[in-house]
Amino acid sequence: MTNTLSGRFLILTVIFVMLAEVFIFLPSIARFREDYLLARLERAQIASLALLATDGMISEELEEELLRNAEVLNVVLRRDAVRQLILSSDEMPAIAASYDLRDPSAFELMRDAMARLANPEAQVIRVIGEPVREAGLLIEITMPTEPLRMAMIDYGLRILALSAVISIFTAVLLFVAVQRLMVTPIRRLVASMMRYAEAPSDATRIITPQGRVRELRNAEDALQSLQTDLTGALKQRERLAQLGEAVAKISHDLRNMLSVATLVADRLEASEDPTVRRIAPRLVGSLNRAINLTEATLAFGRAEEPAPKLDRVGLRNLVEDVIENERLAADSAQITYACYVPADVSVRADPEQLHRVLSNLVRNARQAIAATGKPGEIRVTGTDGPEAWVIEISDTGPGLPQKAIDHLFQPFHGGARKGGSGLGLAICAELVRGHGGRLELARSGAGGTCFQVILPAGLAA
């Protein structure tokens, strides 16, 4: 009960109604006490007037009966500036308190009522009031408090019982209303969400808004829009996944075909025909670029790169290995390599993935310089900071095209060199992100390009 919306609402309703009744109870019980005392004053006045009408010629038995009917012990009237004891009992106990009802404040009435309920001791009090119909200046009575307190308790219990009935009845009505207006639509909304979650690609499971309450209708409309967009995205993703699988298969077979074509093109370089010998290097270069593109497509087509296996890696040895591989891949005296990495710098990374990142960046730099036909330098530096390791790969090439800068690290939007696809940088950025770091373009222009691989040193902990 307490862990449901309707149950909690029911309990809170009962509590709030009872609190409201408690606030009503204080002025009600004070009013009841005032009316009770005024009624005793009126009865005492009637009894005293009956006695005055007979000039006091009544028996003691009748006088006692008048006092019993008025529920007082004695009556004092002040008429014509004369204070006169009209009725009195034989025995008069000590008076505990006096109350003036001629002009009491609301606070005084509530305070005196609560004090009387809290005091169970039987006492005698004096009550002062104004006579009815101006039959004198003042009327005073003395009376016992026990009948007053019992009447107040009885009235209070009846008020509390009535309050309980009202609160329960109100709570039940509100419970039914909340069930119909809120809980049932919310349950229907949750059931629709669970049904959709079982098969989000099924468009027939998208919720149909039916709520009449504005807030719930807005929630259903928002959920319908979200489910519609999600279903469309899932269908598009499924089509892209199928397309990616087909492209991967095509790239795999195409790579094998291009490898065979490359072997044939290598033999063309030995031809004695000068035209063939002049065209063969260009053909080999084009085939190599096509093979690289298919390999990059296959690498990018994987769902995700495996998580890096972090280990301590000597950065200088790794950079020197990458540079040596590039020298062997393209033996050109016009391009020089420089390694400015201290021998004691070691990073915490996956050596294989970091090797792929640096190889790709150095290869891009080499190809950018080679495309100019001018001499150039590729420089790799590494620094060990307190918060991060920074590896810079800079070159003296022509800089990146503006299209490549605008779509940096986005595949198939143009690469760092003419005819490139941008897959290499996208894969490098993904591998660096897997290490908790980032790949940034530090600068690019006529003076060359510089990329930074930033790895957090916090991984060492």
The counted number of beta strands is: 12
**Compute the gyration radius: what is it?**
50 Å
- Let me know the largest β-sheet: 5 strands, mixed
Q: What's the end-to-end separation, in Å?
A: 49 Å
Number of helices: 10
Low-confidence segments, ≥5 residues, pLDDT <50? none
- From the spread of the alpha carbons, the general shape counts as rod-shaped
Question: What percent of the residues sit in helical stretches (DSSP H or I)?
Answer: 55-70%
Transmembrane segments: 6-26, 159-178
InterPro entries: HATPase_C_sf, HATPase_dom, His_kinase_dom, HisK_dim/P_dom, HisK_dim/P_sf, Sig_transdc_His_kin-like_C
GO molecular function, one term: phosphorelay sensor kinase activity
Catalytic activity: ATP + protein L-histidine = ADP + protein N-phospho-L-histidine
What does the model show?
This protein has ten helices and twelve strands. The longest helix has 55 residues, at 214-268. Helix 1 (5-53) crosses helix 3 (106-118). The protein is 57% helix and 17% strand. A five-stranded mixed β-sheet has the order 2-1-5-4-3. The mean pLDDT is 80. The chain has 461 residues and is an alpha+beta fold. The protein has helices at residues 5-53, 60-70, 106-118, 146-198, 214-268, 274-300, 315-329, 351-372, 402-406, 423-434, and strands spanning 74-79, 82-88, 97-100, 124-129, 138-144, 311-314, 335-340, 346-349, 376-384, 388-395, 438-445, 448-456. It has three domains: 5-169, no CATH class; 226-297, no CATH class; 307-460, Histidine kinase-like ATPase, C-terminal domain (Heat Shock Protein 90, 2-Layer Sandwich), CATH 3.30.565.10. It is rod-shaped.
